[in-house]
Amino acid sequence: MKNKKAVNVQLNNDSDKNLTRRDFFKKSLLYSASALGTTSVLSPSLLNANEKEIIEEAPWGTKLGDPVDKNLYGVPSAYEHNNIRRTHDLLSSGDSYASISMCPIHESEGIITPNGLFFTRNHGGTAQVDPNKWRLMIHGKVKKPMVFTLDDLKKYPSESRIYFIECPANGSPGWRGPQFNSLQFMKGMMSSAQWTGVMLKTILEDIGLEKDAVWMLAEGSDNASNPRTIPVEKALDDVMVVWAQNGEALRPEQGYPVRLIVPGWEGNLNTKWLRRLEFSDKPWHSKEETSKYTMLQKSGKAIRYFWVNEVNSVITSPCPEKPWTHLKKGDKVEIEGLAWSGSGTIKHVDISFDGGDNWVEANLKGLVLPKSWTRFSYIMKWEGKPLLLASRATDDVGRTQPTIDQETSKVGVESVYHRNAIVTWEITKKGECNNVQIRKHKKA
Length: 444
Ligand SMILES: Nc1nc2c(c(=O)[nH]1)N[C@H]1C(S)=C(S)[C@@H](COP(=O)(O)O)O[C@H]1N2
Ligand SMILES: [Mo]
Description:
The protein is built from 7 helices and 23 strands.
């Protein structure tokens, strides 16, 4: 059964009333051209209206533009003021320090999040760290315990790799039923970047790991310190110690000057403002320091170690923030979305128009990398009929997203973590898009 009680959220945080709100409604001008008799979105009839203004009198072309030294660190066009992180009282622990700001993934293009839009999850505020005073200690079960400065770290050969970070609570605003009529609030606890730093295994080869080291404790230098333990096999596999994000130093919100990247695993393990890595031959037993995010199953038993963000996907266009209200019957339109898997590479993504009874395969677009956002696309003609649009991803370890029923029959609705069930958008006759949940699929 569908549950349509999702809250509509006000997305327009306009601070400057002089600016037109730049968003998807603008595109209606373009698309409505198809109402004039063709299914092409690029109808030549568009060109008759303000031709003069287009060729000679655009207001921004009649005088000199801004000088090149106006913004020595560039900022987005003022018309893009609506493309911002957003936060909500329902998602914070009561203040803005132990809180989260959600990535506007409905505005995201490609597979990289611009640094200013990366979702931010803090437990004790954003630390402002002086990189000259910053140190990283690596100790415990290692042959040569070391304290690194930032310069020391940068002497190692560097690697640049694209990975997403996803908080395991991503999707939790839908765990009992759709809560927000918004993609940003539903799935925006994730972002993606190209990270540059050194592979942890390179450092460990250098300083020497003791044979009996089995656990690594990672700790930050912020007010929360975020201690987390990670098995040594993962540390020696693909964990990175990074100082750069999309070609520049990490942002303070992302852990400047150095953070841990634990590819594909729970976001909380990616310790920011990193200060210490300690190796041990046994797990840490204090409640504070062992794996935090256990998963209570319906059986009453909890899964203690559950680190991987499993295969997942969501349609990003259309979505509640980007409906099809500007489309006319018979218009061609591209369905787009993001798929990701912490276990490996996306193999294929299927799309359903009827809430999961029938599926067709979408195209994967652009780079298809392990533990990385993968974009999918499907071009269709919309006949103005209501649809139940859903996407379902499969990864190269053979995992496929479950239905909500399959997921809740296993893990119940008590645990908010690791939700990766199929997300369904309802498209109405008018082209509105709503967050709904289809609990029963005929051919699940
Ligand atoms: N030191 C420290 N590291 C931290 C946190 C924190 O509060 N302090 N939050 C964790 C959580 S819960 C998540 S989901 C990710 C979020 O990374 P981001 O803020 O760069 O998106 O950082 C993790 N690393
Ligand atoms: Mo998190």
